[in-house]
C-alpha cells in the first residue's frame, strides 16, 4: 500500500509442529590408509553419498512441511502465526472485559435495525463485555484516533453477503468513536442501510476516505440457464466468471471478501439454481466442488486484476451458526460464551479456502474467524431481531463478534508498534 503505515501481509499457514531432520549415522572402521588411492577414493564416494542422502531427505521433509503449512494443517489457516515462535491469533478464548463494548450502538446511525439487539429489546448486556484473547499474544485495543489518521485518503471495500455487511457496519461504528463531528460521516448516496441494496458507501469527510460494501453473496455471476435446459433449472451460477460488478472493487486499499452462507441446498437447488461452466450445466456437481471452482475463479481474478502492491486483500472464513433442535430450527441464545466450540463450523469450507489461497501467487490474508465464533452462542441475534417474529442464530448482534474481526484486520495491517502483534511471515518478523 502507498502509506508507510501499512505493512505487507500474506497468508501464513497454521502449524506448531517441529520438523527435525537427523543424519543417518554410519559406523565405519577407521584404518590409517587415507593416503592409499583406493581407500581415499572410496571414502570420498561414501562421504558424497551420505551428504547427498541427507540433503535429499532434508529437501523432501522441508518441502513437505511447508506444503503442509500452506494447506492450513488441520483445516485451519492463520494470517499471523505459522512457526513455532509465532502467535496464531485465531487460537484463543473469549475473556470478560469491562472495557468492552468499544462503542455505543445508540450513537451509531449505521447499525441496521436487524443487528441492533439492544434496540430490539435485549436486556442482558453480558454478551457485550467479552474480548478475544489469543493464547500466545495480545491483540491491541482498537485505537480509532490512530486508525483514522492512517486511513486518510484510503478506500476500504467489503464484498460478500450479510455477514460482510455486519463487519462493514461494525467498522464504521468503531471508527466513529474517534470522529469529532458525527455529521461528517454519511452514506454517499443518502441511502438507508438495507439488506437488499447492492452498494452502500460511507464517507468520512474529515479524513477523506470511504468504507464501502458490495453485496455479492457468491462472488461469481448469477444468470439465466442455457436454452433447452431442464425445467427445474431456473437460474445458474457461472462458476468461471466473476460477479459482473467486480470492476468496482478494484483500486481499493483494503479489500475484504467473504462467501459461504448462501452455498447451501436451500439457497441453491431448492430455488432452481444450479451450476454452469462455460455453456454447460453441471447438474451433478456438489456444492463443495462448486465452491472450490468459484474460489479458484476469484483467485485468478485477484492475481490478474488487483495491484497487491497497493491493495491488501483479505478473505474471511465461514462464521458458524448455532441452530439446534429438530431440523435445526430452534435458536437458543446462551448467557455467556461456551467453553467448547459448538455450532455449524463448516470446516470443509475453511479447508477449501486454505487450499485455494495457498496456491495464489500474490499476498492474500485469510481471516480464520470460524472457531472464534463457535464459542459465541450468546452473541447471536436470537429473538431480538427485526421483525421480532424472525429467530436468528446465524447473524451477530452489534456491538459484538464482528468488532473482534476488525480489530484483527488492523492489527495485521499495522507494523509492530505500540504493542501490536509481532507478525511472522515465512519466518520473517514484519
UniProtKB/TrEMBL annotation:
InterPro entries: TBL, TBL_C, TBL_N. Signal peptide: none annotated. It is a single-pass type II membrane protein. One of its GO terms (molecular function) is xylan O-acetyltransferase activity. Residues 86-138 form the Trichome birefringence-like N-terminal domain. The chain crosses the membrane at residues 39-66. It is found in: Golgi apparatus membrane. The keyword Membrane applies. One of its GO terms (cellular component) is Golgi membrane. It holds the Pfam family PC-Esterase. Keywords: Golgi apparatus, Membrane, Signal-anchor, Transmembrane, Transmembrane helix. The keyword Ubl conjugation does not apply. Residues 139-411 form the Trichome birefringence-like C-terminal domain. PANTHER family: OS01G0880400 PROTEIN (PTHR32285:SF63), PROTEIN TRICHOME BIREFRINGENCE-LIKE 9-RELATED (PTHR32285). Belongs to the PC-esterase family. TBL subfamily. This is Trichome birefringence-like N-terminal domain-containing protein. It comes from Dendrobium chrysotoxum.
